[in-house]
From TrEMBL:
GO terms for molecular function: flavin adenine dinucleotide binding; oxidoreductase activity, acting on CH-OH group of donors. FAD binds at residues 288, 617. InterPro entries: FAD/NAD-bd_sf, GMC_OxRdtase, GMC_OxRdtase_N, GMC_OxRtase_C. Residues 503-634 form the Glucose-methanol-choline oxidoreductase C-terminal domain. Residues 101-171, 280-388 form the Glucose-methanol-choline oxidoreductase N-terminal domain. Keywords: FAD, Flavoprotein, Signal. This is GMC oxidoreductase. Gene3D superfamilies: FAD/NAD(P)-binding domain, Glucose Oxidase, domain 3.
């Protein structure tokens, strides 16, 4: 079949590209696993479609680490199958006849504009999205991990076990050494604010104080509460709402830690003779197009197809979501390579690309594969389904005066950072461990709420972070936006829905061309909508009451968005149409035995296939807490243990 690997010695590879394991994708799912397997002595090929951008300073400093032209893929997704609803979303991206981008809803779109969809960037570089994300590092609730154990009957999924993995990998820079539940010698740098940022940001602190007060606390405690550890081990942590610090994956001088560091540091270890200590081979510019299966041997009773390698296209920016891709300059027929795995192939290409690769390989919903005439290897209806996301929405308000941050006495007078633009004086300071980039920023606060609609009851189900601008979602910085600029008195209480009920998102192939993006539809608020909308409305009302309570000179703050005075129905419509996400999970989910939609078993093995696992954000059976990245590192560490245990058993 099309998926069969050429015999060893045949073709351009001549058998030389053979490894114990092949890992596809170097993000938080792939990198820990690839490096752990190599450190255990197994030969590993790590294939990454992007390139190594570690020389780009914006990827080194957390505060300026926004998605760049060189390190991201631009996906455009749908939130709804229904066009009329979709067109009311205010942050749709459209392409005009001259190629420029325009952002706005359908009512005002220029006549020459074609709808691309809702912009949804992903990291596509060595280290994956951990190189471009905001770095928020919050563990999900204990019940989240325990529920995977209950779902699968696999007791290794339990909160204590996962906390032990966290302790092993963390290198905490914001708590006293020895703090229970934390680690201080691992690779996963975490940092958090020490309170001083709030002393110089009186407006933001006043808003946080009003939120504390609204929950029955004393606003005089605001600064000390804003340094509280949200990843604490208290047995009541998940049921204790209120203000905390928001930790991030960053080192002691707020340099970004990412999955890239793990790969580069593993490659850098040498033996005394100068040869690599660990048998890890990294190939960037390698876009995996399919998994190859052994379909030659006669099928015995119960014999499953076996993954034996991968096929990949070689070259830079081959995927059409890469902003550097151009139909005129990108090669039409890049070289096609294969690599063989003695033991296993592990897909860690992220929530959109892992299900794309599986479907291109003939593993997925039978009807979908038949639609594109892809030879069927296994009918696995759950591939590319059950996608979930944390819905987010800002509660926007206008204060009585602008939100200023007072200068730090430690900075040169008149210092103004340019956030990575040429001549940024703060970059040189950061190199010396000084200046604003070497300190916590204003978004290092987290405020949780347990609404009357939380599930499990009593557990926090909404997380806010308070910032002096409205975070309404993503669009490209070079797009023209069709919204009026926000005045400097604008504030945003950003709301993230924890444990969302919707898992109706899908990733389906657009074509059999591996360079095409798939069709992605989150189908938001299709499932569990009553509960989620009610919880988010309760969150909005909490934010509005807090705004009213902000004292002079900043308050009272006038809530402006979602629009005031709307009926319940209209407000729900606003939430449905204007909320957004960027934490997609679950497109190849772990599930219980007997569930036809369970793509993976509890050990990350693709059900019905030997030698193939999925280890990335696709594997989560539900959204992991408010922020997925830490859980993805933990998942990868857990998978490493499972895979190494199996490898030793087979020896
Ligand atoms: C802008 C942004 C902000 C975010 N902020 C936060 C946050 O503050 N906190 C948080 O917890 N989470 C955040 N996230 C989400 C978080 O970063 C992701 O959930 C996490 O990185 C997922 O890890 P992953 O390994 O599943 O996939 P990814 O990190 O997406 O990595 C997948 C890798 O696979 C590669 N790849 C894809 N297809 C192929 C192919 N065919 N062949 C070879 N390689 C391939 C990609 O290039 C990429 O490097 C954010 C994400 C973004 C994009």
């Amino acid at each position: 079949t099309a998926s069969t690997l050429p015999p060893r010695g045949a073709g351009p590879n001549s058998g030389e590209d053979v490894y114990d394991y092949i890992v596809v994708g170097s993000g938080p799912g792939g990198a820990p696993l690839a490096t752990n397997l190599a450190k255990a002595g197994y030969s590993v090929l790590l294939l990454e479609a992007g390139d190594d951008q570690s020389g780009d300073i914006s990827t080194q400093i957390l505060q300026i680490g926004i998605p760049q032209f060189t390190n991201r893929w631009d996906f455009y997704v749908r939130h709804f199958a229904d066009d009329a609803t979709q067109l009311r979303t205010n942050h749709l991206t459209w392409q005009r006849a001259d190629g420029s981008l325009w952002v706005g809803n359908g009512s005002a779109a220029p006549a020459d504009a074609t709808l691309l969809g809702i912009y949804y960037p992903r990291g596509a570089t060595l280290g994956g999205s951990s190189v471009i994300n905001a770095g928020a590092t919050i563990l999900p609730s204990r019940s989240y991990w325990d529920s995977i154990g209950r779902l699968t009957g696999d007791r290794s999924w339990n909160a204590d076990n996962i906390r032990n993995i966290f302790k092993r990998i963390e290198d905490n820079h914001y708590l006293p050494p020895g703090t229970p539940g934390h680690g201080f010698n691992g690779y996963f740098d975490t940092n958090g604010n020490n309170g001083t940022i709030w002393e110089r940001a009186p407006g933001t602190t006043a808003i946080l104080g009003a939120m504390v007060s609204e929950l029955g606390g004393d606003p005089a405690d605001t600064i000390s509460l804003a340094t509280r550890d949200i990843n604490n081990v208290s047995p009541t942590r998940d049921q204790t709402p209120g203000l905390y610090g928001l930790p991030v994956h960053a080192n002691e001088t707020w340099g970004r830690f990412s999955a890239r560091d793990l790969v580069l540091s593993t490659l850098a270890v040498k033996k005394p003779n100068g040869s690599p200590r660990h048998p890890l081979t990294l190939k960037t510019h390698a876009l995996v197009s399919k998994v190859l299966f052994d379909t030659k041997k006669p099928k015995g009773r119960g014999r499953k197809p076996r993954a034996v390698g991968v096929e990949y296209l070689e070259g830079q920016s081959l995927y059409r979501a890469d902003p550097r891709y151009s139909p005129s300059t990108s090669p039409a027929n890049p070289p096609v390579r294969t690599a063989r795995a003695r033991k296993e192939v592990i897909l860690s290409a992220g929530v959109f690309n892992t299900p794309q690769i599986l479907q291109l390989s003939g593993v997925g919903p039978k009807s979908e594969l038949a639609r594109l005439n892809i030879p069927l290897v296994l009918d696995l209806p759950g591939v590319g389904t059950h996608m979930t996301d944390n819905q987010e929405l800002p509660i926007v308000g206008l204060a009585q005066q602008p939100f200023d941050t007072l200068p730090s006495p430690y900075d040169p007078p008149g210092l103004v950072c340019a956030f990575g633009f040429p001549g940024d004086p703060c970059i040189d300071l950061w190199r010396q461990g000084l200046g604003p980039y070497a300190r916590a920023s204003l978004n290092t606060n987290a405020f949780t709420l347990a609404t009357n609609h939380s599930s499990p009851p009593g557990e926090v189900d909404v997380l806010f972070f308070a910032i002096p601008f409205p975070f309404r979602g993503y669009w490209r910085f070079d797009a023209v936006v069709n919204f009026p600029p926000d005045p400097p008195t604008t504030f945003g209480i950003s709301m993230v829905k924890i444990n969302p009920g919707n898992r109706a998102g899908t990733v389906k192939l657009k074509s059999t061309d591996p360079r095409d993006t798939p069709n992605i539809n989150f189908n938001i608020f299709s499932e569990g909508a009553t509960r989620d909308l009610a919880a988010m409305r309760e969150g909005i009302n909490f934010g509005r009451r807090a705004y009213e309570g902000v004292p002079a000179p900043y308050g009272p703050v006038l809530p402006t968005e979602p629009p005031l005075g709307a009926s319940v129905q209209d407000e729900e419509q606003w939430i449905r149409e204007q909320s957004f996400g960027h934490h997609a999970s679950g497109t190849c989910a772990i599930g219980r035995n007997g569930d036809p939609f369970a793509v993976l078993d509890s050990k990350f093995r693709v059900r019905g296939i030997d030698g193939l696992r999925v280890v990335d954000g696709s594997a989560f059976p539900a959204a992991p807490g408010a922020f997925p990245v830490t859980s993805t590192f933990l998942l990868s560490e857990k998978a490493s243990e499972d895979i190494l245990r199996d490898a030793r058993r087979r020896v």
